[in-house]
Amino acid sequence: MIALVVGGAPATARSWLWTFDRLDRIGGLAAHVEGHPRVIDSPLGKAIAFNGVDDAIFLDRHPLAGAKAFTFEAYFRPDGGAAEQRWFHLQQDEPKVGPAANTRFLFEIRVVGDRWYLDAFVHGASYARTLAFPERLHPLGQWYHVAQTYDGRTYRSYVDGVLQGEAELAFTPQGLGHTSVGTRIDRRDYFRGAIRQARFTPRALAPEAFLTPPVARHAQH
């Protein structure tokens, strides 16, 4: 569904909430499904599981297009698999060459044995910043909230509301585009795990304002 932060407010005040509880539509958008992702039961409600081989969903919207500041957050469960996995990719539509090529937001994970760490990344014509901290490892097979935020100066990443790291960033808004879930936009680095929900807000939220789960996230699948 789509949640408006302030009723009747301009589009810049809008927060998009996408719940992954069905395969035909997500966030009010038609879902273009590849492979065989599955709707599953989870402690957080219905979610979609991806096999890490060829499961993916594509959506015809870049939900943070035009945002000058942002919070990009999600509930997901990483289940192991390949060392590098891209599980959420927002891509601006653009030519394949030039300084603006591959303008995007990313959520990735790196799998290290039975643990993982978050890799958040944002890229545009005049900026590129990775927030990845291999020392901040978390167990696989559990549900987590992750977020990346930008307040006009500082880019930050979080796991379960705990700051993973931060860096200054000269960000500029991205344009209209598309989203891939469970894989890169060019169908590589597939994700093994499940996704319950994502929210996109055009301002930086403090951790206490992040999405709240209906139940404790540490329940096993």
How much beta, percentage-wise? over 45%
- Biggest sheet layout: 8 strands, antiparallel
**Which regions are unreliable across 5 or more consecutive residues at pLDDT < 50?**
1-12, 216-221
Question: Distance between the terminal alpha carbons, to the nearest Å?
Answer: 25 Å
CATH topology group: Jelly Rolls
Number of domains: 1
Structural class: mainly beta
Strand tally is: 18
- What oligomerization state is this entry in? single chain
Shape: globular
Rg, Å, rounded: 16 Å
Order of helices and strands: EEEEEEEEEEEEEEEEEE
Level-2 CATH architecture: Sandwich
| Count of DSSP H/I helices | 0
* CATH C-level name: Mainly Beta
The residue fraction in helices comes out at under 10%
What's the topology here?
Layout (H helix, E strand, L loop, with lengths): L15 E4 L5 E2 L2 E2 L1 E3 L3 E3 L6 E5 L4 E4 L10 E9 L5 E9 L11 E9 L2 E10 L2 E6 L5 E2 L4 E7 L3 E6 L2 E7 L8 E5 L10 E10 L20
At a glance:
With 221 residues, this protein is mainly beta. It has strands at 16-19, 25-26, 29-30, 32-34, 38-40, 47-51, 56-59, 70-78, 84-92, 104-112, 115-124, 127-132, 138-139, 144-150, 154-159, 162-168, 177-181, 192-201.
